[in-house]
Amino acid sequence: MPDSMRVRFAPSPTGYLHVGGARTALFNWLIARKLGGVFVLRIEDTDRERSTDASTRTILEGMEWLGLTWDEGPFYQADGFGRHKAEAERLLADGKAYRCFCTVEELAAKRGLLGDEYRYDRKCLSVSRDESDSRAAASEPHTIRFHVPEGTTAWDDVVHGETRFDNASIDDFIILRTDGTPIYNMAVVSDDIDMRITHVIRGDDHIANTPKQILLYQALGAPVPAFGHLPMILGPDGKKLSKRHGATAVGDYAQLGVLPEALFNFIAFLGWNPGDEREVMEKDELVQAFSLERINKKGAIFDTEKLFWMNGRYMEKKPAAELLPLVAPLMIEEGLIGEAEVEGRRDWLLHVVDLLKVRARKVEEIRDQSRVF
RNA sequence: GCCCCGUUCGUCUAGUGGCCUAGGACAUAGCCCUCUCAAGGCUAAAACACGGGUUCGAUUCCCGUACGGGGUACCA
Questions:
Q1: Beta carbon of A279 within 7 Å of strand B?
Q2: B45 C1' – A303 CA distance, angstroms?
């Protein structure tokens, strides 16, 4: 199984590459490297309203900066709309899904009435096959809903262990919109089948989607992959890390003078550890030590203090010649040196960087402390 | 509301029934080293959410409670 392992990272291009997303990508990358698997990158741009090219570019840049190289892709989910739709229709033909003619207004009204207790009432499940076909033939707008079967859906989660949901708690969810585009769960399952993904490792905010997706795999007659749900990364207040916590994007940390290898190492230790007392570990050591079994279940607060400490350790280890290209622009910007000096006084600058790097926690601290020279 | 997940020092965590007087790391305090500041070394303070079981013995297993998080969309 190891040599046929296929994992993926599937961000939606609606913002920057957040540290949470980066951690998900990192764990997938680590396990693929460790077990000789294939790491696939897929951009989930099904939400056309919010997806942007700029966001896709930022995500790819962030991954490259961290050194999270992918083996296949990037693939774009929207390119698979035809297949997603065909599979949803196959479910319809097989009687595993049905057309729903309820309008958004109608649904919203019911939801308003029942408030939080709202559940789809399966009104359209009782529409006869013939009536459904003729209304569709008359091009009456409709969505396609998956008909959730009775029973319970369980899986052996790679990080949480046995996890189960009573199917009765799952609504007959929409798989194809009125405009014929697929909804998230349909697109993901269709793509993961298509890409022969064997292990789905993602944030645990997706845990409630998993039974729906397993049901879809089964209805489609496809083998169900292994699932593993990673704990959330939280802000200092214990809530899910978000923009209001300040720097949360990978690019923000690059900007703050954090080295990619330091962020890589730090993020790898959020929800995972090698079991011994090592903490400063290079990429190849991390690959060597990594295992899905040692991933934690508890959400972890992102502690920037410790990140900067770790960054300091990496600055110290990094040769001055590699640090200089990062520091020189900052020095020029502050007028501490001229452009010509970068080459002209290269040996002297290397010496300065060498002396200062051991005490700096951020790249710019080398610049700041170099003022005395 | 309902469903699901989680709960060890301030923070990241080790720990899978006795090895725990609960270990390490960041941060904090002190000392050493040192021309300064770091780095490094040593030391200090600091945690098993609560209540019931199970057991000769629970941080570890089970059940409740509390608290936190996630989901419950024609978002992903």
A1: yes
A2: 21
DSSP-H helix ranges across chain A: 19-35, 53-66, 81-93, 104-114, 129-137, 184-194, 209-220, 250-255, 260-268, 283-289, 304-317, 320-333, 339-344, 346-356, 363-369
Q: What is the pTM of this model?
A: 0.93
Question: Which chain A residues in 318-357 sit with Cβ < 7 A of strand B?
Answer: none
State the amino acid at position A360 in one-letter form: A
pLDDT of chain A along its 373 residues, tens only? 445 899 999 999 988 999 999 999 999 999 999 999 999 999 999 888 888 999 999 999 999 999 999 999 899 999 999 999 999 999 999 999 999 999 999 998 888 887 777 889 999 999 999 999 999 999 999 999 999 999 999 999 999 999 999 999 999 999 999 999 999 999 999 999 999 999 999 999 999 999 999 999 999 999 999 999 999 999 988 888 888 888 889 999 998 999 999 999 999 999 999 999 899 999 999 999 999 999 999 999 999 999 999 999 999 999 999 999 998 898 888 888 888 888 888 988 898 888 888 888 888 888 887 766 6
* Interface confidence (ipTM) of the complex: 0.92
- The answer to whether A280 CB is within 7 Å of strand B is no
